[in-house]
């Protein structure tokens, strides 16, 4: 199977290039070819394998799903009557220099550019899930560097929860993941409106909320391979569109 095409540009061409409407340009900083786990084990990888969002495959698990944002559009275009529009109205929250995680399907099918040996991908903004940004906060009177987490496009990152115990003697449930609920780990701004007028969401979501998911909510991890995860150590999070959250089941008292 032939490798997907990659367009080679000079540095000057890349710098003056204009990205497509509602897209961002991402510089790849992690390559799956020759990838190794944190323990140093080399994992085989074939970039030409085909996969789809939600499918469990070795290729999908190793997809290059994050990079550094290097170009953003001047504005985002939303018009519910135009098929070229985004599927929802939202603010552009990405900034140049942000690390951004995006759709595994877009990781495979995006327009790809090569400049001075470095791979760049043009990704639809609406398929970007979350950004990590270097920021500073004052601790004991001095500025300290930390990562600011910015969920994008109304997406929410959930911590998976174990199945509730049926009885005190139940030793099995807490080893199984409950696919109907999760705990909010990171939440950002909701979208303003949807192209599909039947969509709606809960505005009042807080970190720590235990939530019930829609019956047909698609569940997938931000990073599918725990051994290669970089977003938050070994922690894995589900990515869920806010509109797929049916209700808040429990709120922490601290909230």
Task: Describe what this molecule looks like in 3D.
With 255 residues, the chain is mainly beta. The protein has one domain: GroES chaperonin (10 Kd Chaperonin, Protein Cpn10, Chain O, Roll), CATH 2.30.33.40. Helix content is 6%, strand content 36%. It has helices at residues 11-16, 58-61, 104-109, and strands at 7-8, 23-28, 66-71, 88-89, 99-102, 111-115, 118-124, 128-139, 142-151, 155-162, 177-187, 193-194, 210-213, 220-221, 238-241, 245-250. Strands 1-6-7-2-3-5-8-9 form an eight-stranded mixed sheet. The chain has a six-stranded antiparallel sheet with strand order 14-15-10-11-13-16, with no helix packed on it. It starts with 6 loop residues before the first strand and ends in a 5-residue tail after the last strand. Residues 34-38 and 40-62 have low confidence and may be disordered.
Question: Concise description?
Answer:
The chain is mainly beta and 255 residues long. It has 3 helices and 16 strands.
């Amino acid at each position: 199977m032939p490798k997907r095409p990659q367009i080679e540009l000079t540095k000057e061409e890349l710098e003056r290039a204009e990205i497509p409407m509602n897209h961002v340009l991402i510089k790849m900083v992690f390559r799956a070819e020759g990838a190794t786990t944190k323990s140093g084990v080399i994992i085989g990888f074939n970039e030409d394998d085909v996969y789809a969002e939600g499918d469990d495959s070795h290729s999908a698990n190793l997809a290059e799903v994050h990079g550094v944002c290097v170009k953003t559009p001047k504005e985002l275009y939303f018009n519910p009557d135009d098929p070229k529009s985004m599927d929802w109205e939202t603010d552009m929250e990405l900034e140049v220099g942000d690390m951004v995680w995006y759709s595994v399907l877009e990781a495979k099918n995006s327009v790809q550019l090569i400049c001075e040996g470095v791979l760049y991908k043009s990704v639809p903004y609406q398929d970007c899930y979350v950004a990590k940004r270097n920021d500073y906060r004052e601790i004991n009177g001095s500025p300290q560097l930390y990562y600011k987490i910015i969920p994008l496009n109304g997406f929410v990152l959930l911590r998976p929860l174990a199945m509730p115990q049926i009885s005190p003697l139940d030793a099995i449930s807490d080893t199984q993941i409950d696919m109907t609920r999760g705990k909010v780990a990171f939440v950002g701004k909701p979208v303003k409106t949807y192209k599909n007028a039947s969509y709606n969401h809960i505005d009042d979501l807080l970190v720590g909320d235990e939530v019930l998911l829609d019956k047909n909510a698609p569940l997938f991890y931000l990073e599918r391979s725990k051994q290669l995860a970089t977003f938050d150590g070994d922690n894995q999070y589900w990515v869920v569109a806010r509109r797929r959250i049916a209700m808040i089941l429990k709120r922490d008292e601290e909230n």
